[in-house]
Each structure stands twice: as structure tokens, then as C-alpha cells.
Write a structure and sequence with these properties.
This protein is α/β, with parallel strands linked by helices. It contains 9 helices and 42 strands. The chain has an 18-stranded parallel β-sheet that branches. It has 2 domains: about 260 residues; about 90 residues, no CATH class.
């Protein structure tokens, strides 16, 4: 214990010797209390730039606000297992070397808005104690020229906001195993390398997780993350890969107008040895995928694309954009079979939407093109539908025209020619030669002719590729 000296007087002696202010943990709290004003006066001292360890405070309890606008700090700073009972207000500060808060507890607001710092670390202490925030944390428009470390940090305020809005991080941002119980805002931030949010927990159905307009030049990892609130990943730019493997979404996901230059991993990851591992990913009940683009994806395996395309803004909504994006990817990947399946499912969903809207004219056309030729992707169906009509019609004409055809002529062949003359919208000079009275003959002839006027134009459009152009 400091004995007759106050805790600040003892700390001042350590500073004069350029030694770390390391309060023994066994000391009572009253003997480890120092003021924020004391630290504000000590931090800007240029001598800390010459001390290898920099400015170090361990096990201290800071009882008053630590406030200084436009602070200029030349040396490295490290607070370890310190408790800030009041706010830490250092907006517009310029730190020349890295700043670390290891295993610290912030009971008040942390405000480092528009600060500039090489590296910023809110990680664990040497004893494995995480950094804990009980109020807001403001990093708006801050510039971190190196790395941001928030490994296992806990943001516990349910009413508070953690905001990195418009922050610029030249290196990577690490949020593995972080706990957020309030709103987290990363909107308009720029990350020069990777964003790591593996095993992070965004808890509470009232929590908003905002990444809107985020730009990440490297990879973004959300593997095994738990996201219970509304997640906004709209208008983002990812220049490499995005991984959602094992993520657990509870409410909604907005992925609209987001660009992923690399691979979108939803279910499967491939290790360096080429072995694939699959984790259970819980997709959200509501999602907006309009305008989402990606270079590659793992959705082609085990028909997972059907699960992905099943995501909707609401159960009755229809948006063709996600279908077209996935169809284009499958074509580029050489999986034309899957591309055709996706296109057919898109037209099927379109038909269901037209039916709900009561647009029966367009719904009828949709059904006709979908059932007959699969909207250009299943042209073989034309042969089936042609056979369904022509074969019964030909057999009927064989029986009914038998008496009208001369005995020495082949009945089956002439009946076939007659059937084709009725079916095809061209004149083969056979239809006028043979006719039979009665309504049944007239009905069969009418149905065959009508079906020909439907099938033949569709066949021509199929061969010319007009239906596929509707993609």
C-alpha cells in the first residue's frame, strides 16, 4: 500500500521515474483510485515516446472523467485491468503509437470520435480478462492506420450504441467472440484488409446490426456468429470473400445492392487441403436479396440454392433479381443444368405472384409457356405435348377415315398425313379429301388444329431462342 502517500502521489513518483503505474491487485480499491485529470496531464508528456513500454497503468480505478479534446500523445499507451468509473472523452485525439485497453471496464461512455491511432486494442489482459463496456462506445470517423482488436470484448449496454460509422481501418478489424447487447453500427466504415466476426454474438431481438455501405477490401467472416436482431448488409462492397458458414440469423437480413467480388460462402468451406466441411447455417425468415451480386458461391451443392432462393421480404413477395444472379453464376460455372432449374423456378414464382395479384391474362401466358416449353429451358416438352395430341388424333382418324379411303391405299399412312395436315398451319391438300359427318369428328379435328396453332409457333420461338432471351 502507498502508506502515508495518496494513491496519486504514489503514481506520480512512478511517473517521475518513467515506470509503469502498476497497482498491486491485492491493494484495496481506495488505494488504487486516481483521477482522470491526473492521467490527462501525464499522457501528453513527450518522454513516453522514449520509454520502451510507453505509458502503462495497471489495476487502477479512474474515478473522474478522462477528458481531453485534440490530445496529442507521442508515446504508446496501455491500460490493463483498469476500471473507468466515469466517461473517457478523447475526441479528435492524435496518437502516434498504439493504444491498448486490455481487460478494462468502462462504466461510462467511451468517445474517441475522429481520433487517429496506429493500432487500437480492446482485447484480453494477461490473465485472460476481457474488456467490458457498460455504456456507449463512439468511434465515428476515427482513423486506425493499423489493426483494430476487439477480441472477446463485451458491449453490455442494451440501450447503448457501439458505432464505428464512417471509421477507416487500414488493416484488419477483429471482433471474434465479441458480445453485443445493444445496437452495433458499422455503416459506411472502410476496412483495408479483413473483417473477422467469427463466433460474435449480437443478442436481443431489439438489437440492430448495421453494416450498411460498409467497404471491406479483404475477406469478411461471420462464421458461427449469432445475430438475433435486424441485420443490415445492404449497399456493401466486399472485394474478396464473405462467409456466413454456421451463422444463426433470427430476424431479417438485408443484402440488397451488395457486391461480393469473391465467393459467397453460406454452407460450406474448403480448407487448404481441399477438404470440405459443412456447418449448420440458420438462415433468417425474412431477407432482401435484390441487387446482391457475387463472383462465386457454394449454393450449387445439394440443392442448397433452393433454400437460398426461398428467402423473401415476406411470404407473398416476388423478386426476380436473386434468381437471375444465381442463374448467371451457374452459367459461368458451366452448370447450365442448374441454371435452367433456377430459371424455371423463377418463372414458377412469377406465376404464383401473378395469380395472387389477380392478373389472370399474364398468369395464363405464364402457365402456357412454363408448362409447354419451361420458358425456353425445357424445349423437349414440345415433343411430349405434340405426342399427347397427335397420337390419339391419328388413331381416331385411322378408325373414322377407314371407310372413306380406297381399299388399295395404306390407311395408316394416309391418316397420318391427314392428321399432320390438320395439325400444321400449312396446306397439304389432304384435309379436303376426307371428311366424316358428326360432332365428334368435328371436335377432334378442331382440337388438333387449335393445338397445332399453339405448338408450332412455340417450336419456332424455341428454335430461334426468343424464349431464352426473356431471361
Amino acid at each position: 500500500m502507498p502508506g502515508e502517500l495518496s494513491s496519486e502521489a504514489w503514481a506520480k513518483e512512478r511517473l517521475e521515474l518513467a515506470q509503469p503505474i502498476e497497482f498491486p491487485k491485492e491493494w484495496p480499491e481506495v488505494d488504487r483510485r486516481i483521477s482522470g485529470e491526473f492521467l490527462v496531464e501525464a499522457l501528453p508528456d513527450s518522454k513516453w515516446a522514449k520509454v520502451p513500454t510507453g505509458f502503462v497503468v495497471v489495476n487502477a480505478i479512474i474515478v473522474t472523467p478522462l477528458e481531453r479534446r485534440y490530445a496529442q500523445v507521442d508515446g504508446e499507451i496501455c491500460f490493463e485491468e483498469c476500471v473507468f468509473e466515469a466517461g473517457v472523452e478523447l475526441p479528435y485525439a492524435n496518437f502516434k503509437r498504439r493504444v491498448r485497453f486490455l481487460g478494462c471496464t468502462f462504466k461510462g461512455t467511451l468517445n474517441v470520435q475522429t481520433c487517429r491511432v496506429p493500432d487500437l486494442d480492446f482485447g484480453e489482459s494477461r490473465a485472460g480478462i476481457p474488456t467490458v463496456f457498460h455504456s456507449d462506445a463512439n468511434f465515428v470517423t476515427s482513423e486506425i492506420t493499423g489493426q483494430l482488436f476487439c477480441h472477446k470484448a463485451q458491449f453490455l449496454s442494451k440501450e447503448g450504441v457501439v458505432t464505428f460509422n464512417s471509421a477507416k481501418i487500414s488493416g484488419s478489424a477483429f471482433f471474434q467472440e465479441c458480445l453485443f447487447q445493444g445496437t452495433a453500427d458499422f455503416g459506411h466504415a472502410e476496412i483495408g484488409r479483413n473483417l473477422a466476426c467469427q463466433d460474435a454474438k449480437f443478442l436481443g431481438d431489439h438489437v440492430n446490426v448495421v453494416f450498411n455501405s460498409l467497404k471491406v477490401s479483404g475477406n469478411a467472416f461471420f462464421d458461427r456468429a449469432t445475430l438475433e436482431g435486424l441485420v443490415d448488409l445492404g449497399d456493401c462492397t466486399f472485394l474478396r470473400n464473405v462467409s456466413l458458414i454456421g451463422a444463426r440469423f433470427s430476424q431479417s437480413l438485408n443484402f440488397s445492392n451488395t457486391s461480393i467480388a469473391g465467393t459467397l460462402y453460406v454452407f460450406t468451406t474448403t480448407s487448404s487441403g481441399g477438404n470440405e466441411s459443412t456447418l449448420e447455417t440458420k438462415l433468417p425468415p425474412i431477407a432482401v436479396l435484390r441487387g446482391l451480386t457475387y463472383g462465386r458461391t457454394d449454393l450449387e451443392y445439394e440443392n442448397r440454392w433452393r433454400t437460398w432462393l426461398g428467402l423473401r421480404r415476406h411470404k407473398d413477395s416476388y423478386d426476380p433479381a436473386p434468381y437471375r444472379t444465381l442463374e448467371e453464376y451457374f452459367h459461368q460455372a458451366g452448370r447450365d443444368d442448374l441454371a435452367d432449374e433456377v430459371h424455371y423456378e423463377m418463372r414458377k414464382a412469377e406465376g404464383q405472384a401473378l395469380w395472387r395479384q389477380g392478373r389472370l391474362d399474364k398468369w395464363s401466358v405464364n402457365c402456357l409457356l412454363r408448362w409447354t416449353v419451361g420458358y425456353g429451358v425445357y424445349g423437349w416438352r414440345l415433343f411430349v405435348w405434340t405426342g399427347v395430341v397427335l397420337l390419339p388424333a391419328w388413331l381416331f382418324f385411322v378408325v373414322t377415315l377407314k371407310q372413306a379411303i380406297e381399299p388399295d391405299k395404306p390407311v395408316s399412312l394416309l391418316s397420318l398425313i391427314y392428321t399432320m395436315d390438320v395439325f400444321l398451319p400449312v396446306n397439304l391438300n389432304q384435309e379436303e379429301l376426307y371428311t366424316r359427318p358428326g360432332p365428334v369428328f368435328a371436335i377432334v379435328k378442331f382440337v388438333t388444329k387449335l393445338w397445332g396453332w399453339v405448338i408450332v409457333p412455340l417450336a419456332m420461338a424455341q428454335l430461334a431462342g426468343f424464349l431464352k432471351k426473356k431471361r
